[in-house]
Every structure is written in structure tokens, then in C-alpha cells.
User: Fold Glycine--tRNA ligase from Gigaspora margarita.
Amino acid sequence: MTAFNRSSLEELLKKRFFYAPSFQVYGGVAGFYDYGPPGCALQSNIIDLWRKHFVLEEEMLEMDGAIITLADVLKTSGHVDKFTDWMVKDVKTGDIFRADHLVENVIETRLDGDKQARLTTENDATSQKDKKKKKGTIQAVKLEDATKAEYEEILAKIDNYTGTELGEIIRNHKIKSPETGNDLTEPVEFNLMFESSIGPTGHLKGYLRPETAQGQFLNFKKFLEFNNDKMPFASASIGRSFRNEISPRSGLLRVREFTMAEIEHYVDPNNKKHVRFDEIKDVKLSLLPRYIQSEGKTVPVELAIGEAVEKKIVDNETLGYFLTRTHLFLTMLGIKPDRLRFRQHMPNEMAHYACDCWDAEIQSSYGWIECVGCADRSAYDLTVHTNRTKEKLIVRESLAEPLVYDKTVLEINKKIFGPKLRQNAKIVEEYLTNLNEEQLEALKKELEDGNGKTMVSCADGNQYEISSDFLTIQKQTITEHVREYIPNVIEPSFGIGRILYSLIEHVYWTREGDEQRAVLSFPPRVAPFKCLLVPLSNNPAFSKLIRDLSSKLRKLHISIKVDDSSNSIGRRYSRNDELGTPFAITIDFQSVIDGTVTLRERDSTKQIREKIDTILQVLKDLVDEDVTWEEVLSKYPTFVQQELD
Amino acid sequence: MTAFNRSSLEELLKKRFFYAPSFQVYGGVAGFYDYGPPGCALQSNIIDLWRKHFVLEEEMLEMDGAIITLADVLKTSGHVDKFTDWMVKDVKTGDIFRADHLVENVIETRLDGDKQARLTTENDATSQKDKKKKKGTIQAVKLEDATKAEYEEILAKIDNYTGTELGEIIRNHKIKSPETGNDLTEPVEFNLMFESSIGPTGHLKGYLRPETAQGQFLNFKKFLEFNNDKMPFASASIGRSFRNEISPRSGLLRVREFTMAEIEHYVDPNNKKHVRFDEIKDVKLSLLPRYIQSEGKTVPVELAIGEAVEKKIVDNETLGYFLTRTHLFLTMLGIKPDRLRFRQHMPNEMAHYACDCWDAEIQSSYGWIECVGCADRSAYDLTVHTNRTKEKLIVRESLAEPLVYDKTVLEINKKIFGPKLRQNAKIVEEYLTNLNEEQLEALKKELEDGNGKTMVSCADGNQYEISSDFLTIQKQTITEHVREYIPNVIEPSFGIGRILYSLIEHVYWTREGDEQRAVLSFPPRVAPFKCLLVPLSNNPAFSKLIRDLSSKLRKLHISIKVDDSSNSIGRRYSRNDELGTPFAITIDFQSVIDGTVTLRERDSTKQIREKIDTILQVLKDLVDEDVTWEEVLSKYPTFVQQELD
Assistant:
């Protein structure tokens, strides 16, 4: 097989209209793509399989929510304040760059230059080979050892710098605007959400959602009720989300508008076991946990998930269950297992809400790219929405045996409290009722030390005197029949476009000895079109047969593509190899005489020839992946005929 | 059957989480809804059937495009200037109203009051009955006959007033702010598109698309190429669109964010025949053409579509084909044929681009509501985008026989033309080459009359002298081997949410004698969940059977809902009648002993009892609608057992 060539693949994807830049006749806008017929069908099939594999398999509660989201919701979730990137401007041209990406690129280039310079002195042969690999011109400039070490440290930490720190790096290391060499401004924060205004007043602000998750959280109570108040359960949602990237590149891998499929699996924080864990515990995953990364290594460990959970490499069964189901899903689509790994986030790179996170990373020509994130968001989201709206997004669980325990509690004697504190009573009461047990004990001590009096600092910034004659702090025995808790959320979040693109790279190859004859070997269930229907020529004798056969295939819900163009059969087969169409039925003069047709398989190019009804049954089984082509070949004789080019 | 009660239905839809206002815990925002599990599954099934019925059946070229659309695109399409409603404000409170809706409501109320006043004098009994039908308080005030006639005329024309005209009506007829009685401002235009800004500069404007159509038009060239340059063909797209309604009400029928499914079928303007018209020509449709409406009548005519096209009631075969396919699709979903009609737009109510338009209107408690629009958009969109971008969105057709005809053409003698006109040569040439045949003939005459000299007014506003020594205008014989044309577009456009809500009303009923026992009789293929799985009780003996059966049903891709709650069987059946689940498998002690289970059908509540494998096969056939329940009952004995409540 020849080496992978991205530009050949991109040429194919454009020619066959898998996808193209949106508004291309208007010049296009970075980060927006339209999926053409094969891309759209491929995406539909991936989504359909996702729904079967996750939603139907686990009876998840799927919802379809609004894209435009009330600003308040995203303020609460933290997105308004924290969902930002740092940008810098060329002081003269006004060109805008994402600060961390710019620093990363420049430092990487300088380190590459250093590497080349060192290699040139050490070993000329290697240096030549290495030079060829690199695109563009890299100047071989040797760095001071200390600078080199500093650069390497910057790269390792690149995801975690504040704007001020990025600004310092830019100044200290003389990083300039790449095209012009001009100075850059200080980094400023740029929020990645698209903003709009709802209704005619102009006062009601909304954002295009950056994820489907928040819509799911807001409906937690309704889901729980729909599930007959039973825990654990999962909600799910498939839909468009938006991120106003500063300067998106990398094709489908970094876009401003994308389709996500997200699951929010709600669990009891005290019990993250999964009832179906046993079914998958022996599946082996390629894991890159923190302990390997922190040694600066990137070679993953192959482990059965059962063992990984047992050894606490993966925190709990539910997280392990979803990592494994994700692995099964991706490999079923055609992702190569040796180009798939699960990488655990380092503590400092996790999103603000996550308490643990593993990414399914797929290797493509762009490197190892996060395609699925699997985060334990803890109780973060349900807690902040509960606090903000006072709607309790919680679980109430009847206890089989009541829970009895001692607790420090506060009692306020309202008869004295109110009159004494007057208009300040409310703010002081709020302060007091928000104290936890430890704080109550401390307050009790203060009161005792202060002869029954002390001052408290309330939310309005003022201090108020309280005294022990209007409040009691003491241990009480509490008996609880109902346990209330905010569930934790395990969230597997799938970037459909990233999976789709990575998959295309994995199934792309060219036929031995002919680089022009490219093939996309999608598994039948994933392939955009299942069967090509070709008459040998556009002889009218074939048209009735084509019509009948089309109609029969549609009844079987097999998506077809008829190609009755005047191109040669070989040309038409090639075109459909490029579309990844796994099978082709060919109608020739023999078909008109005896009702037999040939069935060709894409990868092997082998054919069988049988009666139409037999072929239809075989095709149905192949498309449903109930039989393999090898099994078909072992049952029916191979039909040998020269392919006519 | 009891009379339809919308609030009971709404209660059910809320309780079973078919849908709910988005961000409800934050108070909600009008016009945004989230679909819960049954609503979401229902929507998926409708979309899935739409894709099979239209896209797969006709090998349409489906695409999935960007929602955020470059402002330029929508400027060209006319949406930036014309996609607006008129709004008025309460001068004191600032409350905003959509002007035409407000006028319509007030005038309707006054006419109702007049009707009551007249009836009260004429016939007391009828008046009482009529009063009950109306919500709210209507004052019985008799109007002058002239005023009444004027009001009726306003209602008939309500969709076509300009802002100034609406302002006059509001002033002349003393229409005030409904709650406060305050004066209203002059109507101002409000664009219905949500606006946003793309990228970090703030200079690149985008809108959320108001329809998927424009994205399809922009890709016309790529589609045509994908289709091997063959005409006619259709593209299709399913996705979210947005309209920033001024004050949306009417539940799912008027929302700010909605899912559409649109087809753009491209035809040769000289040939709007459809190759499959014969297959559907005998299907009868309920048609409300212009000629009936212009007589002030609303009783549709039942006609076979073949006859309707023959009589030119429906303009052409392609339009007729899609009306019929739409009828077949909607009735397959469960829309009642007697509550479905196709209404032709009056010439003055069509969108700015349309040259003919029929709406599929479905009757619900909100009246007859447009759920599908079927417009002939002529060559409008492809023409305006071609003119704006200079990318020719056209068809080039090789002619079997060359076309030979005479044409008046212009030839410029550049050798003289350039030197004479100097820096003005370009603008004059542009003016001349844009003249059509008629204009050229006129210019020729002017030159002859002016002794070979005349003045022309060019695009820069200046006049330039031209003379016959540097241009020739004469008839030439033209021979064309290729015909170039801009296709016409027939566009069936489906509002999925409106269809979904109307369908729910059509399949909703309550069991005889018990208004509390509501049923949603979705056809099996449409139903959110296909089968309920209920163990008689939560006895552990049943759990293995439930698990095995669940797994088998999932393998058959039958979506299930297990209800092992402690509610009675009757209660659990009722709950699923409300979800519209057509079948239920019940596991009891007998099942554990002999491996038989019962299968219950929702509408009849009848059951059969057979071995599990038999039941699974029967269920699969029922869900695929390959057999009816009646056929099943004629084959298997009815199992009689009291339903336990």
C-alpha cells in the first residue's frame, strides 16, 4: 500500500462532494462546512448506529432541545465567564491570532530548527531525511540549552497559561505576527459563544449552545419523573452546537458549527457501579493514564477494562463501562483499534466542571485528536442550576432503614431575633442558615468566649451583633427516612464530524499499483450508499430491469445509487469505490435472458452471479452485516469476468 | 367519543414529557420547546419515514448544511430586506405587538361582538350556544353595516398591508394596546432573522437561517455534477431553522426554532412533466384552488390528481406529483384524510419568489394550519445568486439537433471604439453588451435617425456619444449546440413540529365512558416506543425473562420501554396508552413455567398468548406494518383475562 497522501484524499472528498466549505460561491467562511450526499448519508448512518448502540440499547431518555439558549443559563453554567480563548492582534494590520496556538506554533518551529541544527552537526544523513519530512522552510538555528528547556516547558504547559502569562511569553521570546513580523497586542479574552438577541425588544440575550449538555441538565426533574423516579439513568441528545473559534483550520476537526451526540448518565455519588459492567469487563482498551503521561511517555497500556477499574486506573465501573462501549462503537464504525487510544486528562487540563476525564483520541494525519470526551462532571451542573433557580434538581430516595445520626444544628428564637435585628433580620438569618456544622461549632465557641455575644460579617458587607439569647446551637439526633442527593454525571460526548473525518482517513486506501484507484472501505452498515446499480450500457432493454430492481431494493430499505451514465463499467465501479459503496449489481444481456445478475464486492472486486431473488437476499444479509463477503464466496461460486475499463 | 378537549391533551403531553418549554426552570422563553423522550422519538420516526418516503424513494441528493449563514447570501435572497413583520409598541409600557395579528384579533373580536348583538335580537337560543364557544368576554356591540363590511375587507386582506396601511387602520379604527388601552406607535419593520457575528473581528455578520433552501441553492453546481449532469433531480435537507417571531403563541405551531425538511426539485422550465406521475395519477386529493376561494368559499373539491393537472387546476405534473406524495406521506403518519386539504395561494399572498404555491393544511383545534408548503419558486433563487456571485448556477444541455435561429447582435470595432472613448470605453461597452435584442433594434434605429450618432446613458449616470463607425448592429443566424438554462425549482417544505402536533391531535381519544383513560393511536411505525415490557409484579423470578426478552427485542431494533414499577398492570397499560405505545408484552407466572407471554394491542386492548419466539415474530411484523392486528387476531386465538386495575 502506498503512503497516505492527505491532498489526494481531500481531492477525492471534494470531487465526490462528501463535504465542501459552506457558501463557497460567496467565497466561504472558515469553520463552516456543508455535507454533500455521501457525507450527509455517512453522518446519518453514524448517528443511526449511535442511537441503536447507546440510546436503544440502554433505554436512554433522548431529548431534542433548543439551540438558542437563554444567557442566564450559560451564565450559571460558567460558559459566559470561562468559555474563552486568548487572542492577540497584529498592532499594524489588525490580524487576529489565537494566542496559545500562535505561541505553540512559533516555539515548535524554533525547536524544530534547533533539532535540525543539532542533527546537521551530528549526522548529515539523518538530517536530510528529517528535513524532507517538514513542510515549509524551517531555519536550522541552534538554541541555547537553557532556552531549549524553557521552550519544552512552555509546550508542556501551553493549555494552562493565563492571558498575562501568554503576553509575557510573547514579549520575552520576541514572538511576532507571523506574516508581517509586526508586534502583537497584549492577549485579550474572547468568548467562544455566538451571541444573539431573542424577540423584538433587544433586551433578552441568548447564545447558540456550545454543547447540548445544559439543555439536558435543565430537564433533569422531568427525566427522573419519566423514569418513574428510578436511578441511575441516562439522558441523551444529538444535535448542532456552536463555537466561535478565533481562527479555525484543520478541516472538519476544528469548526464553528458541529453535530454532537451527548449522554448524561446520572449516578448516585456513593455508588458508581454499573449493572452491565460484567458484559464488557474483558474487553481490552488502549489506555494512556496520568501516571504514564506524567513520566513524559505516550505509549499506552493494553488492559482489560475490568482490570483497569480494579486497579483504580479508571476510577469507577460506570466510567469504565462507557469507555468500553465507546471503544466498541468506534471500532464497529471502522476506526482501526491500533489508532484509537483513551487518554486521561492531567489534573490541570480538565474543564472547570470535571472531576475526571478520559478522551477517546483517534490518530489521523493531524495527529492524535480528541473525538469523544468522557468526563465525570461530578454534581457541578445540577448544583449550580439548583442554587441559581431554587428548583431542586435532586434525587429523593426512600431509605429502607432510616438513617440516624448526630448533627450540630441551629435554632433561631424568632420572637426575640426579629425585633432585635429589625430590618437586618433577613440578611443575618440568611448568613446563619448557610453555615455548615463546623462553622456552627466555631460560632458556638465564639459566643461562649464572648459572653454570649459576637459579631458576624454578612453578605451586605456589614457586621452585626448576635447574642445567645435568640439562638441555640446544639447537637441533635437526626432520623432521616428519605435521602436527598444531587447525582453525579458521567458524560460521554461525541464529536460526530471529527469521528466521521477520522473514519474516512482510516478506511482510505489505493489499489496496488494504481494510485488513481482509491477506495473507501466503509463497513456496509456505515457506507453512504449500500449498492450501486449499473446496466452494462444504456441499452433500453435494461431500463425495465433497473426500475424493477430499484423498487425491490427500496422496499428492503437498501439505499442505492443507479449509474446509467455512458461511462465504462470499470469507470463506474471506480467512482463508487471512491464513494465507499460496498456492493454493485450489474445488469447485462444475460440478465435479460435468464434473470441472473452479478453482485460485486468493493474491496475484493470479486463477483458472484445468481438469480435476482437470491442476490437480493444475499445483499440484504451483507448490508445488515449478518454474513461476511467471505462467507458468501464460500457458498456461491465466484463469477469470473474481465472488468472492462 | 367525547368532544376534543385541548387542555386535557396538553396536560397529558406535559405529564408524559412529549415536550415542554425550554429553560423552564429559568422561567422559559416564548417560542422555544424541548422535546422529551416520546416527543423526540416521535420526531425521529417522522423524519426517518420522510427520508425513506422522499429521499431514498427518489434518490434525492440529501445535504446537511450550516445553520449560520453569511449575511450576503440572505441579502441576495431577499430575506434581509423582505423577511419582516410589522410591530407596534404600547406608547407607555413599551409592550410590543405584531401589528397584523393585533389588528386581526381586535377586528375579529368586534365582528364577533356584532354577530352576538345581531343574534340576540334575532334568536336568543343560538346566541347562547354561540357565546359558549368563545373564550373570554366579548362585548355584544352592534356595528354599522358599513363598518362591518369594512372590517370584513380588512380581515380578507390582512396578510398584505404595508406598515403605513396598518398604521392607518389602527388610527382610523381606534385600536389600542389590549391590556392597558394606551395608544400604539406607528408600525415599524422588524426583521425575523436572528443575527450574530462570526469570528473575533465583529465585522462579519451572519444570520441563523430562516429556511434550509438557500444552502441547497448555493450547492446547485455540485449537486448537478454529482448527478452526472443529469436533469431533473432533487436535493433535500432536514434541519433546524429559526424565525425570531415578535410574540409567538399557539404552542408548537408558531415557534422561534423549528425542524424543517425541504426538497428542492430542479426542473427544466420547458418541461415540468414527472417520470413517475403515472404511478400516482389516480390518487384523490382534497383541493381548495383559487377559483373556489375567490368565490369566498372554503369547501374543497375532491379530485384525482391526474384530472386536476389535466384541467390545469394544478399547474403541472411535478407540482401535482409532490402534492400527492405529500398526501400519501401525511396519511401514512396517521393524519386523517378528512382533516387534510391542499389550498392554493391567492396571487397576492405568495412569497416574493413564488410563481405558484399550494399549502397542505391540517385541521386542528387551532384551525386549518399550513404544515407543508409546496411552492414553485421559478428560477428566482438560482438567478439572484448567479447575478450576485457570477458563478453560473445553470444547466448546460447538449442538443441532439443544433438550434438555428436569427438574432440581433452587436459587434464592436475595438480598434476605433477604444481610442475614441478612452477611459470611458469600459463603462460604455458594459452598457452596450447588456442590451437585449429589442433594445439593440431601438439603438440601431436611433443611430439611423441621428445620422450615425446618438447618446447613451451609462451606469455612472453620464451620457456618452456613440457612432455607427465603431459598432455594427445586425441580424445573424445563430447555431447552438448547447442549451443553457436556469432550472425552475419546485419546493415542498415540511414543518416537522407542526405536523407532529397536528398528528397528536388526530390520534388522541379517550376510552368510552372514561375520560381519564386517554389513548394516542399512533400507527406502529410512527409510535415513539413500539413495545412495553411489563412483568406482572416485581417478583425476582421475572427479571431474567425481562432481561432476555429486552435483549432479543433490541436485536430486532424494536424500541422498548420496560415498566417494572410497582403500579398495577392496568395503570402501567394506561400510562403507555398515553405514550401511544402500540403493543405490550406481559410476563407472568405462566411465562416462567411454559415460556408463553401475552401480547396486548393498545387500541383494542385485546391480547393473544403464544410462545415467546412466535410473539417476537408477530411483533416484528406488526411494527413493520407488514400485518395488521386484525390479521393477527384472525390467526391466533384471543387470550381472555380480566385487566387488573
